[in-house]
Amino acid sequence: MISLKNQIVLITGASSGIGNACARIFAGAGVKLILAARRWERLQQLADELSREFGVETHLLQLDVRDRHAVESAITSLPPAWSAIDILINNAGLSRGLDKLHEGELPDWEEMIDTNIKGLLYFTRYIVPGMVERDRGHVINLGSIAGHQTYPGGNVYCATKAAVKAISEGLKQDLLGTPVRVTSVDPGMVETEFSQVRFHGDRERANKVYQGVQPLTPEDIADVVFFCATRSPHVNINQVILMPVDQASATLVNRRQ
């Protein structure tokens, strides 16, 4: 396992769920953290907690990954002490709705496409050239089992995660000949705010998604992300698919009554 001490790690969607868990596990390794999210108060609270618990330095970016100009401005105007990003964790993402394609809400489609695909692309485009120039770096994309298997009502969300899979594979090919690594971590069911967001705040409906199942936790995913980031420099974990024991595919789930 390589040491990450003093490396600069940028995490998108850091204010909750998997992003928050990644911030905590990487903070324990002594990195410097750039935390990006829309919710400023949550970012500040997380930064305060990480400072107290781990004594790490943090740099906060309040932005929406869908805003290309905001992403460009945030990355190009980073202070010199924060500009040499070693690890990019493209975690920001969401799902909206579970409608049939022909009944879907267009704003939901646009939000998923703009966040899950374009937001990931913006950060990758503005950060990876520096990694190539410095001869070091690692891009870790948070995909999903939905990128490998579609399911009823998943249509556009599954398409966005299939795009993340293709982008990860394409980026790895484009970076051949450089030491920059590319990893896609693709979970099944993880209990976060994901389902609440999908169902537009309907907690009762969201809770039923995990009823009778022991899902993965954000910490489970962060543990895998951290494992991938700490392998020897000549080792690239291309892709990790992980699911709870109670899940066998995107649609096959064992529910205990």
Automatic annotation (TrEMBL):
The keyword Oxidoreductase applies. It comes from the Bacteria. Keywords: Oxidoreductase. SUPFAM superfamilies: NAD(P)-binding Rossmann-fold domains (SSF51735). InterPro entries: NAD(P)-bd_dom_sf (IPR036291), SDR_fam (IPR002347). The keyword RNA-binding does not apply. It holds the Pfam family adh_short. Belongs to the short-chain dehydrogenases/reductases (SDR) family. This is SDR family oxidoreductase. It comes from Anabaena azotica FACHB-119.
